[in-house]
Amino acid sequence: MKKRIWALALTAVFLLTACGGSESTTGDFSVTAGEDAQTAAASGLTLSMRVPETLNPLRNRDESVDRILKLMFLPFIGQGENGKPEGGVAENWTLSADGMSLAVNLKQNIKWADGTSLTADDVVFSYDTIVGSEEDAIYKNVTNYVASCTKTGTYSVTVNFREAFSNNISALYFPIIPAAHYQGQTEMDSAANMNPVGNGPYRMESYTMASSMVLVPNENYSGTVPNISTITVKITGSADTDDYSFSQGILDTMVTDSTSAGRYLAADDKMKGTAFDAGVYDFIGFNFGRDLFQDKNLRQAVAYVVPKDYIYESVYLKYAEMSNTPVSPASWLYEENVAPYNYDASMASTLLKNAGWADSNNDGVLEKEKENGTKEELRITMLVNKENTARNQIASRMEEELEAIGFEVTIDAQPYDVYSEKFASGDFDLVVGGWKMSEVLNLAPFFVTDGDYNYIGYSNEEVDQLLQTANSAIGEGQTLLAYSNLQKKLAEELPYVSIAYRQDVLLTSSYVGGEIHPTRINVFDGIEYWTLQQKG
């Protein structure tokens, strides 16, 4: 497999900025007075976002703005709750035998909010817009996978990939925008770029600069007509402002972590919290630069004393999916049938004994005689980011568990910058860490020999081959089988002890009902099925 695919970044590295809005243009949309926005808020759903520097979804750089724009724009090919490609403006698609191109037929009933039809020209224009967008635009990473997009008919296109990579289709969840509306709009805050014309369940009715936006159902939407007739989007300055506004009933929703969610839900039993995969993978990693961890018995002993029930209940407050592999349990690629390493301190002690470790001097620390006749004691350091509360809790509990079976553990808690430097340079024995995984799954950089993020120094020829097979698989069946085989081997080998994939929580006020199913790539997915009771 070519080196470029190994090196595709898996961390979701989008630079999220909240820039000031421009006062130079208003475009053709309505700029409302604050009183109108307040009236809409009293009768409809109220959301939030930061001050947008643009309302063009393909040039936007702010995650909170992207969430709102998804209410107005459908993706090229979407992702279901399990991350499997589905839906969007694509009717169907066929992958070439060599995996290098994708022939896509578009749905022919999709119209823009202005009544015109979506065609292949819009898809090609959308991809070209991404190519010309800023490096930190939300969807810029699409160009890591897609080399070109060409029109093959009024409602058909061919996507040409840079490499034959198994998860290429997962990268095609970018929004499609109308070429006729956005053509020639080079300025981020031009009239057209601040007046979105989309194809989703909602359209923009008005925008009060740096204050609020009002959305109403899109009469030309091809799907289910939304139940909620008005959405007001408040412009807020920070997540802290959102937190306060939600606590005061000004906002009806808020995305938060497990700690904040627990606090809110404990205080209001009518409030709802819907968890969804945050893409954050937590693990315990071994430094394979130390001979100590070349012994799989020792790695397995560590795995058997990870108290996952405690971590799930007390650290994550039940907002996580405990995982036995580096793939999210929420993913269609997750393999359930792997070695689980359920908590078993007796098994851990047996493994250490079988590996030659014993406490011959009764000091509580195991030792082992080396080939040169000297004794090695089971003393290790455990690196953790001191600013990450959850991982510090895990490290503290792991210190207790490991010392109970004969380790002596020193926790090395460091600020993030120092932690990152020590992790990357291999200055640790064990590490309690985590990765923000990409929506386009690729495990190679973490586990392939000399991979860009293989900070643990792991090397295994069979795993290298399984990674190559997983990344070069063509079609769903091959990909599913390849990832199954890879996960079974990783669970057996234990370069990492997988702990969990953490969840974020979409909090909704007591007024909000209906089917609420947030996903990682769209927290408002299916918002047309939400309902709203009359506010008091």
TrEMBL record:
Pfam families: SBP_bac_5
Segments forming a coiled coil: none
Biological process, per Gene Ontology: peptide transport
Domain Solute-binding protein family: 84-436
Tagged with keyword Electron transport: no
Native source species: Anaerotignum lactatifermentans DSM 14214
InterPro entries the UniProt entry points to: Peptide/Ni-bd, SBP_5, SBP_5_dom
Gene Ontology cellular-component terms listed: ATP-binding cassette (ABC) transporter complex; periplasmic space
Listed name of the protein: Peptide/nickel transport system substrate-binding protein
Keywords: Signal, Transport
UniProt cross-references to PANTHER family, sorted A to Z: OLIGOPEPTIDE-BINDING PROTEIN APPA, PERIPLASMIC BINDING COMPONENT OF ABC TRANSPORTER
Family statement drawn from the similarity comment of this UniProt entry: Belongs to the bacterial solute-binding protein 5 family.
Signal sequence extent: 1-18
GO-annotated molecular function: peptide transmembrane transporter activity
